[in-house]
Design brief:
The two termini are 43 Å apart. The chain folds into two domains: 142 residues, Protein Transport Mog1p, Chain A (3-Layer(aba) Sandwich), CATH 3.40.1000.10; 115 residues, Lipocalin (Beta Barrel). The strands form three sheets. Strands 1, 4, 5, 6, 7, 8, 9, 10, 11 and 12 form a ten-stranded antiparallel β-sheet that branches. The chain is 11% helix and 60% strand.
């Protein structure tokens, strides 16, 4: 793993992340640093490191999808090496293999899911041949120590917080979602693409082309989680259901309560 500067962590401490609301207990014999939202832990008597990271996974399906992704940073590339196994309800395990600082490495990752709050991935990473049972046991102990410190919002409170008209605009499209206080919604999506027609032989413009599209859906909506983050459940008139993760827009410590990432896109309340 790369060498980074961060906040020191002492063994036995309970560490709470103020942005996500998760709390973790550091086992005795372990210390490390909190760096860029991650916990990087080491034990002088064991080779390898333990990495603790928050994943915005709000359903079991999205949690499994996160576990199947590569663990990657500028010096680390670890790919899934086996099928996901369930250690206990809400706690999954996955094996990884790849390189760290160019050297062969292996990892065992544990993921714990908190309904309406998100998930945490705890990875025990070591050079190939040095991934000891003690390292994995410490990672599992950390995973089981995880707790969520915030009180989940009541459905009525979330409905009041999110009711309104939300819009996102890209280069060629515009999406508008109206979340009504009574739990109904309207979703409008418009797209438009255009360009020039040219004669390749003569090298001149001969006209223009354009394509436009518009979709409209309606149904019911429900939010689960906190005001900061959670999942938005959309039930269409046809009965089909879709789930979108949401989280409030935070930039340089400032929270923008009228801006949310919904399904990975930034929406603003109009």
């Amino acid at each position: 793993m790369p060498e980074k500067q961060g906040t020191g962590i002492m063994p036995g401490n309970e560490i709470t992340d103020p942005e996500s609301g998760f709390k973790v207990t550091i086992p005795h014999g372990w210390n490390g640093q909190k760096v860029q939202g991650l916990l990087l832990l080491q034990n002088p008597s064991l080779p390898g490191v333990i990495l603790v990271t928050i994943q915005y996974a709000w359903t079991e399906k999205s949690m499994r999808a996160e576990m199947q992704k590569e663990l990657r940073d500028p010096t680390t590339l670890l790919a899934p090496a086996r099928q996901i196994t369930e250690v206990s309800p809400g706690l999954l395990s996955m094996g990884y293999t790849g390189t760290v600082n160019g050297a062969p490495a292996v990892a065992t990752g544990f993921c714990r899911y908190f309904e309406g709050a998100g998930a945490i991935v705890v990875a025990a990473i070591a050079a190939r041949g040095q991934n000891s049972p003690q390292l994995e046991a410490a990672a599992l102990s950390i995973t089981r120590s995880l707790a969520y410190t915030r009180k989940l919002a009541q459905p009525a409170d979330l409905r009041a917080a999110f009711a309104g008209t939300w819009m996102t605009i890209s280069t060629n499209s515009q999406s508008r979602i109206v979340l009504n206080p009574d739990g109904t919604y309207i979703d409008d999506y418009e797209s438009g693409y255009s360009g020039q027609l040219r004669n390749a032989t003569l090298g001149i413009q001969t006209g223009y082309w354009g394509v436009a599209g518009k979709n409209r859906d309606a149904g019911r909506w429900e939010a689960r989680g906190t005001r900061e983050q959670g999942v938005l459940i959309i039930t269409k008139a046809s009965g089909a259901q879709e789930t979108y993760e949401y989280r409030v827009h935070v930039e340089k410590g400032t929270v923008y309560w009228n801006e949310y990432y919904i399904g990975g896109k930034l929406y603003a309340r109009s």
